Description:
It contains 25 helices and five strands. The protein has helices at 12-29, 39-49, 53-56, 67-80, 84-106, 112-123, 126-132, 138-158, 161-177, 181-201, 209-229, 233-245, 250-255, 262-272, 274-279, 281-299, 301-320, 333-351, 359-377, 380-383, 389-399, 413-419, 429-435, 449-455, 457-460; strands spanning 405-409, 424-426, 442-447, 468-473, 482-487. Strand 4 and strand 5 form a beta hairpin. The N and C termini lie far apart (86 Å).
Amino acid sequence: MPDSPLPPRxxxxxxLALAAILLLALALRVPGLNSGLWYDEISxxxxxxxxxxxxxxxxxxxxxxxxxxxxxxxAASALFGEAPWSLRLPAMLFGVASVWALWRLAREVVSPTxxxxxxxxxxxxYHHVWFSQNARGYTGLLFFGLIASLALLRGTxxxxxxxxxxxxxxxxxxxxxxxxxxxxxFGQGLAYLAVLxxxxxxxxxxxxxxxxxxxxxxxxxxxxxxxxxxxxxGQMSDTFAGVQSGPDDALRADSIAEWKSPLWTxxxxxxxxxxxxxxxxxxxxxxxxxxxIALWSRAAILPLSLIAHLGGTLGLLVLLGxxxxxxxxxxxxxxICLFLIHGAFRIGAAVGPRVGLTEHRSGVILAGFGIxxxxxLLPTNxxxxxxxxxxxxxxxxxxxxxxxxxxxLGLSALPFSFYAPDWTPVETLTEFExxxxxxxxxxxxxxxxxxLKRRHADILSAPGTEFVEEHYFHGTLVDGxxxxxRHPGHP
Length: 491
């Protein structure tokens, strides 16, 4: 297979523009980095990061353990001390690095201007900033996914050993970061297979090397993944079985049933876009389609990969009975940004000359509108923490009387055991009745109100409790607000 010409090396202006974008990415991800931790971050810290390294590497009792990230966070905490910002530092660094990775991938298929604008669009993306300040492995997964896409693109074009070895190493790193990477690489595998079938149908023929080299690369990655996870293979099967079956209690299972629905996932994605981008969804889909068609002739592997991952992930999760989290699709954000910018330029090329603009200028203008629309949502990230547990604790401590009891309900028990270890956790009506004294001032605090109101309806509607909502603490996490209730006590 003949080599495709490499893109021209970036000139000084492009390097300076890229440096400015990366500095902006860093600047946007520092404010709020040390804000209070949210539920999953606290769980990661308590259950995994604080473990001895040997124990961490042999523990997989929950999908919440993003193994590679847990090791990175452990190292950062050891170097800088345990704090929210140090726990989130690896996610932030991978977030900035993924902006560079997107630019590098985009340079292979579009003009330097479009590559820079794609990087800029992801830089100011609310969701990218949010996850860059989230002590989880998702930005690492995005980074390795983008580098894997670059290696896949080069492997498809050149079939070089270097490209496929790099692809295999990215597979290993991504899988060690989060096992949902399997969906990404499964989709990319289907896309590569489709490319090979297309070549055969066009009469170009197929060499054995085009099959063996990719298999060797992915085989290398698979061996590394197997070795890394070998100590926890038995635990993994039990963990997957538990997630698939769901809670044993019917009420708890019903309270989270919607999390397995693709319609719920779609609704959450649209809500996460905000009012401006949400209304523009049809336009966004049109621009993505235009870009996919335009890229088909020179980089069909990219639109094929995006379609295969989106459809394949959703289908497999529903088929396996797993929860369909929108965050599983963050790994597609880079390609989506690239497609949006390229689609804007293709539309600009068609429309611009008709209104007296050059193709390039009209493309820049349309891309600029898209970036400006994304900026509308960005300030929301800095308005509140993800979940404001410290503020809730401070509020209750400032307003409760001496001797008042504070109860942390259900899922709230874990985060408040971290921020307020003297509070009493209650999970069942029996535990609540044992802890609640009608004659005593009592505070009841809980988070994830939509879920907990269903799961603990018996407690929240128990006769004679007469709890009154005192405060609601907003957060950027969907349904992550914190409700503070108070019962005055009857003498």
